[in-house]
User: Fold this.
Amino acid sequence: MNTQNEKNPAADAEAIRRKLIRRAITQLKASYAPYSGFHVSAALLAESGKIYTGVNVENASFPAGICAERNAVFHAIACGEKRFRAIAIVGGPHGEIRDYCTPCGICRQVLREFCDPGEMTVLLAKSVNDYREMTLEDLLPESFGPESLTGFVSYI
Ligand code: THU
Assistant:
């Protein structure tokens, strides 16, 4: 993660992690999940230093819904971002955060498109004081990404 406090980069990184988790928790109330009742919120840190949030948005036509993580990624891309450093994810039934909420496979793959998996921090949080930290590489090992297509498609 980017650090700004050169004297204490560890404290700075911890402050960024807490900020991301706080943003995800604050936005959880915006989740629209009347069908599953499972509310999810994500806060995504872009390389620019800006944070973008997303929540799951369900639909009466079930497959039309979207997960919180992808919503955050697409929100950020639509604002001009291209690369990400970290994401905090919170969620649970009826918006109660009881357990760590792991990203689904499709969201892992979408995140993979815009980061270095070994450098992408994923925070699975119950609170600002209780979270698991991993990388996207942990969650999606030996992944297929844009580089995998180099030389095969003309637009890469
Ligand atoms: N959900 C997410 O938002 N993110 C995930 O990674 C897992 C699942 C949402 C989708 C759906 O609205 C609800 O949780 C139940 O699957």
